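2.7 Reproducibility. Because tokenized structures are sensitive to small changes in the input, we list the exact sequence used for Aminopeptidase NAALADL1, including any N-terminal residues retained from the expression construct. No trimming or masking was applied before prediction.
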Amino acid sequence: MQWVKGLGLGLGAAALLALGIILGHFAIPQNSPSISATQDLDLEILETVMGQLDASRIRENLRELSREPHLASSSRDEALVQLLLQRWTDPASGLDSAEAFEYEVLLSFPSQEQPNSVDVVGSAGDVLYSCRRSEENLTGEQGGPDVVPPYAAYAPPGTPQAVNAAKYGVAGVLVYTDPGDINDGLSLPNETFPNSWYLPPSGVERGSYYEYFGDPLTPYLPANPSSFRLDLTNVSGFPPIPTQPIGFQDAKVLLCNLNGSLAPAAWQGALGCDYRLGPGFHPEGDFPEDSQVNVSVHNHLQLRNSSNVLGIIRGAVEPDRYVLYGNHRDSWVHGAVDPSSGTAVLLELSRILGTLLKKGTWRPRRSIMFASWGAEEFGLIGSTEFTEEFFSKLQERTVAYLNVDISVFANATLRVQGTPPVQSVIFSAAKEIRSPGPGDLSIYDNWIRYFNRSSPVYGLVPSLGSLGAGSDYAPFIHFLGISSMDIAYTYDRSKTSARIYPTYHTAFDTFDYVDKFVDPGFSSHQAVARTAGSVILRLSDSLFLPLNVSDYSDTLRSFLQAAQQDLGALLEQHSISLEPLVTAVEKFEAAAAALGRYMSTLQKGSPDPLQVRMLNDQLMLLERTFLNPRAFPEERYYSHVLWAPRTGSTATFPGLANACSRAGDTSPGSEAWAEVQRQLSIVVVALEGAAATLRPVADL
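Resulting structure tokens (single pass, no recycling of outputs):
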């Protein structure tokens, strides 16, 4: 590290003073381009990056990343840690620094000595039928020693009798993926992988059944050696009964022989028989009526070391402002789509930016952090531990978080989930990049054909989905209040009913599966790389942060209208007024519009760097104002009053919707209605705080 000397060369004394106030000391290598306090997005650099992102290199990245199974904490997972470190410290294309951060976390694995099993047994204990313990080895990649057998992580061990136990209460759970949900109803071997992209009959979806995210033993604390750990008897969030996933080939044998009344229409599937509820087997079926299903689960918990890998490009002007771009590294088996398609894109983008950096032709205004998270599949563990360890630093300094997990589900269109302030930067990026495939549409114009909404401000625009807890953005938005987004390419919903790509979390999610069925030619991977790269450069290099806080007004107005229409009359019956909420929304709208006008004024002139910095901090910190760690005491890590889980049916502020749903027909003055009033107050205070953050910084 070399301390900067002579920073004021070429700058006036006033600009130097402003920079000194903002930055203090920071390190910039000698081969960096000249530094200017007004450094802004360089469109030539942006065009260079867009042109150099190479589909064939992304393809080769994916081939290497998915070559072997890499379950969290496995030897191959550790080998990929070293691969990332090697790439990010490469003399010709590496970053400023790269480091692995290791945590000791509680993971769950099936027993190698006692495999989990599901058997139909007769009254004498004789085995009449056994479900497969592994998937069929169709391509030579499903049978290796490193392929973890299908299991439900964190499900407890046990041996319940699963069918006839229904009349006594559920004792165990079998989980399968129905071809009606994943395969558009197709189930024959010649209709499925390796002959198409559909899940073969023996395919089993692995997964974590832990209710929360983060290391189970160290909630709200990083899983470092010195951290306090819960006793296992005090850990919550694990399934209470043994659970085991099976393939639909085996599920058909069990379901199509069940006795009892018909299951509801919504429960029927595509296995070629009527689904019944039991108990017991049908007298004319394949098994005697008194047969049982034995489910033997031998999972065990184990402390394992799991690493995050961070690669950093230090900012030239604002190194203490971070733009984060991350994806997890671990997979259930080969994980070509999930997650390696995202990591393949991340590595190509970091190579291009690292090469420009090493040549001395570019350095971003703000710092860029690339992250490879560990143990995501077990419950977003790596990213959560990172946010716990660096909570204050990240909250104070992070501009935005971009997540690219599965970069390509399929190759029809862009799909984005995110908070409203990131909408404008994504739109700007998507409008400038050509969509893959025939024709000359931009990614934006293609996107709007598949996902769109009518905005009162902009008219017809692409629609962004909201962020739940499906990937590593969760701790950033829900716990830290950092504006976040998740970018991917996906399928045409009019052509498939699949809830996700069919080989999800199975041993059939391989490189050849992607290469042949998901994205031949890798043009959609390249499109995601260009979109993500453009967003990262705009966030890290633009003088004014491209976060449009006024875009929150659409969401707030929509939530308010839903509350008025669906809950207003009920609330009035209990003497609860929505007027404070109406006023709070109006205050926010006015403050956001005024800040937008102020920004426009600054952009037309030659603003002082300190003015820009203060404005950018208002944009960056807005998302934090919606956090209230006491709003949802029953939830872990969920603090964002706009995006917490909503169990109520009304599409409004989640705390208000949930409280009204629980209050239901309870009597006036009950604790349930007091909670409704509390949740309403929480939202009002959050919105008033948000408006105050957007008003001139000298005002309260």
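Residues 551-694 form a domain with the Transcription Elongation Factor S-II; Chain A fold (CATH 1.20.930.40).
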